[in-house]
Amino acid sequence: MKHDILYKPVYSLLKVYLEPEESVMAETGAMVTMSPNVEIKTAARGGLFSSLKRSMIGGESFFQNTFTSRGGPGIVTFAPPYMGDVQHIPISGDWFTQGGAYLASSQGLVIDTKFQGLKGLMSGEGLFFLKISGSGELFISSFGAIHEIELDPGQEIKVDTGNLVAFEQGITYTVERVGGLKSTFLSGEGLVTRLRGPGKVLLQTRNSSSFVSWLYPMLPIPKN
């Protein structure tokens, strides 16, 4: 699938070049522009149960859009709803992303949810990962720029759960406290994800929860 990612690493725009009868799938609301000959269809991808899981516990839309170029080539552009980057991942196997990171993909990829466990619930950063499987093209988005780390076999890293965007099959992980009880409750870090290689890990340079906490005291107080 031919594409360009413009204006990296923030305010990124994904530009997909479709061949005649070629399709690309995307989150609802992600489309910015499309050629007049591009047809859009909206459906609950994977059936009712899968769509409910992605929507209610995976942080994604219940419906997804499919864009198909009819009668010739076409162009569609996509963007995430926040200030951030877009990353292309050629998939062959499984990848795991935080809820809300999925932007678009080629047809044929399967999107499901994976339970993080009780500590994932306590982290406040999301209870489920999205599991994306198959062979094709995946485009994910982030809040801020995307930072890639390649972990060697057995190499570990601890990541704030709010900065973790995606990791590939082969990476194992646990959600744990950042330190002792005092550090966990007073450091502002809470729980972290410990990731163990081999494989790639994609991080975002900004944390949406931290941004909201920073912004909230500056919001005007509504008058009664």
UniProtKB/TrEMBL annotation:
Pfam families, per the entry: AIM24
Protein name per its UniProtKB record: TIGR00266 family protein
Superkingdom per UniProt: Archaea
Native species: Methanooceanicella nereidis
InterPro entries xref list: AIM24 (IPR002838), AIM24_sf (IPR036983), Trp_RNA-bd_attenuator-like_dom (IPR016031)
